[in-house]
Amino acid sequence: MSRKQEIRAEAARIQAIFAESGAREVEPDVLQPADTLLDLYGEDIRARAYVTADPLRGEQMLRPDFTVPVVEMHAAEGNGAARYCYAGEVFRRQEQDDPDRSSEYFQVGMEIFDAEDPEEAEAEIFARFAAILAPLGLRAAMGDIGLLIALVKGLETSEARRAALMRHIWRPRRFRALLDRYSGRRKPPAHHARLLERLGTLAPEELIADAGLIIGLREPTEIVARIRRLQEEAEEAPIPAHTVEMIDDLLDIHETPANALNRLRDIAVDLPSLDPAVERLERRMEAMRRHGVDLDSVEFEASYGRTTMEYYDGFVFGFYAGARPLLPPVASGGRYDALTRVLGRGRSLPAVGGMIRPGLVLELRAGSGQ
What we know:
370 residues, alpha+beta, 12 strands, 47% helix, 17% strand
């Protein structure tokens, strides 16, 4: 049996376990319309996906993951509560400094669409993955991007600042730079200060009128709006230092889930906008215990998933080979309600899911002599 046949057989084995829970087996097309993925991720996706052009269907991409096409299929069928499982290849272009990582590999996964009890669905997904991967002795990690989202939405600052921070939650360096600027820890960029100094008492429209020929992609109205935003920001009061310290405390949490919950409760005393997210975490932990998950063996990281899980907006998790830190996650997943709102044709249904790399499962199993 060839290596690919072995991986396909392992994927089929895992998919059958998911199907036993009532998940419907689906197989989205390998070629996916590029416009949907470009709308979701912007032009950055081109650097990671294989793009081709069809004379009738326009730009197409080789399937970079399963979640997006499964959500689209679910929305098109107008289903309510449902669960799906899948297995097949995905295609990702790799960075030049990582030539050994495969650009074509198998994923097998499961997705649950259910608004009745979101925390129960999250616990079930995690428990099923943990049971399948238990023989490999992997390191399990989880987090909740919804905690940081709740804090940002509850900040006592302008809507424009909250919106800017929300856009960059999944880009930690940019998020930190904005937070430091809005709190006064960091000065605004020098070119902003020079522009405002030059503007003086002039209205932005006057500055544009005196500028002469405008060369570039931005319309004068866009430039004026941007200048007005900079003026408003310069006059805004900074985000209080103690609030930023609480955010720092949250992002620094790396504990067992029980200890993390206690620290989050302490933070929520000063930042009550965090309360609903903390309550969801507590309900999720209770559900995980009912499913037999040993939470003391799971690492909780408040920042987990912020650099690699762009469309997740709540519970996130991953399983890793601790002895081989250079390997990608053997499995990962989480909640992606925001994605269903974008792709749901005007309707939203809470959804959670995850995927396993059967090729890595076989590799680790062989290395352990199983």
